[in-house]
Amino acid sequence: MERETMNLEAMMSAIGNVNLKDVLHDCRPMFVVHKNGRVQRFMGTDEVPPSVDSITGVESKDVVIDLETGVYVRVYKPENVGKVGVLVYIHGGAFCVETASSPVYQNCLNKLSFKANMVVVSVNYRTAPEYPLPVRYEDSWAAFKWVFKTNHDEPWLREHLDLTRVYMVGDRAGANIVHNLAKRVNKQGDATYPLEGIVLVHPYFWGKKRIGSEEKRVKLLGFSSLMDKVWMVACPDSSGLDDPRLNPKMDHEQGELGTDKVLVSIAELDTLRDKGYYYKDLLLKSGWKGHVRLIETFGENHVFHLFNPDSPKAADLMNQIVEFLNS
């Protein structure tokens, strides 16, 4: 926990001075919203273009799927690929930061596409607070449906897609979105959008009542209300922290998933760790008939694999996800 506190203190000091008199919402170290409406982000703003990865040979390109909204996906194709599965990836960032063009995701998804031998469709949804929820859910749903487009106009999907092997994977807020979209798949019917499985990496679930070690962790971090504030900024019309989209306990449709395979990944030092355990337990008690597996990385923090991708533990997490995808 000392390591976690030091990391956050360093991030806060790197931000520099912010005139709080001009700030409407202080969600540092991620972003602030000024009273004039300007959003100032402190992370997740770097972007890289699509490319051919020199290490894996994976090629990527951007495809706009909605001209009106500008929503696009970054598609990754392994080298010398035939008919393979497709993985719809939804990035994290508390609904408010990061993009599908972020360097951390370019690096991660090049590796994931290569190791799993799958086409990856990474969704660049519109972010809050400029676009409040449920925009992120709707943009991600549009991208998921786009994968199943009849007579696909995207050649990489038309030529290589195996519709019997479609997965959704997300980290942080992206994992939250994946869970909620899997319920939507169920309502559409399995035959419409067959979903083989979902992977939730360090999922962003929260609630009014602290569970497990959450109270101790948020107090130690020094900004116990950060996750509370971020949700309300991202979703100002929400009923609050017990919104069923955020709090698994209040989600009476939790077990109504359009898949029978779920993998949940948590990290020992992550403030969101206990909600990941809670999610698994609630899913098993919901009447859902599928199989859920939970894996925990000890001694590591929130999305460590994105920021230290060459570490042995990041490689182990990647291998376990690939094993799940190819099982």
From TrEMBL:
Pfam entry (one): Abhydrolase_3
Domain named Alpha/beta hydrolase fold-3: residues: 87-305
SUPFAM superfamilies (UniProt xref): alpha/beta-Hydrolases
Gene3D superfamilies given in the database record: alpha/beta hydrolase
GO terms for MF: hydrolase activity
Family label: Belongs to the 'GDXG' lipolytic enzyme family.
Protein name (Swiss-Prot/TrEMBL): Alpha/beta hydrolase fold-3 domain-containing protein
Gene source species: Saponaria officinalis (Common soapwort)
Taxonomic lineage: Eukaryota, Viridiplantae, Streptophyta, Embryophyta, Tracheophyta
